[in-house]
Amino acid sequence: MRCTGQKGPGRDRVIALHRSRLTAAELGQGTTWAVMLHQTNGDGLCGWWNYGLWLSQRGVHVLMFDLCGYGRSVCKGQDDSDQVGQATAVVKFARDHGATRVTVVGASMGGAVALPTASATRADAVVDLSGPPDWPGTDLDQDVQALTMPTLLAVSPTDPLSVRAFRRAIKRIPAATKRLDVLPGGHGYVMLGYPGGWSRLATTVQQWIVGDYP
Length: 214
Fold this sequence. Notes:
Blueprint: E1 11-17, E2 20-27, E3 32-37, H1 49-56, E4 61-65, H2 83-96, E5 101-107, H3 109-121, E6 125-129, H4 140-143, E7 151-155, H5 160-170, E8 178-182, H6 200-210
Helix pairs in contact: 2-3
């Protein structure tokens, strides 16, 4: 069993990227997809498993994957450092396999990568949970200026640098629908109530994914 405590009927996937192979797991059915980008701790996509299962029980088709250098993805050459390129390939996979609506959701490192991925792929919405403002290959101040889709930023006061950066960034987002939540609850996944007992933010993210913007 790949993920400790894994439950639910997950389906393994392998997504090709040039000469590389991204390992992924799929939960749920339907045409409303969430592409989930993990944070640095834990075993890659496994950090999303419990929440992904919860989402799949609420009408969301979930696709989690291992960024290069994490989990079981095997990457070569320039693929290894191009996290936005990796995430873009996964969004394309979702669309090629029946997605009519795709929301890119990322936590911590994944949150930083989610923003430029959303603009590059013209995602239907994007969620960034605690993304660091200075992650390699991303530029928060620049990336947010290309976000024309509904955008949800969430951060805890325990990340004071990110709070300040997110307050500045939300003003630069051109999307008509945008929201910044500054909530207690830790960093990244932890803000959702990870690993169980889901928080109000967990419900907000689910609503964002399906296009119900509270």
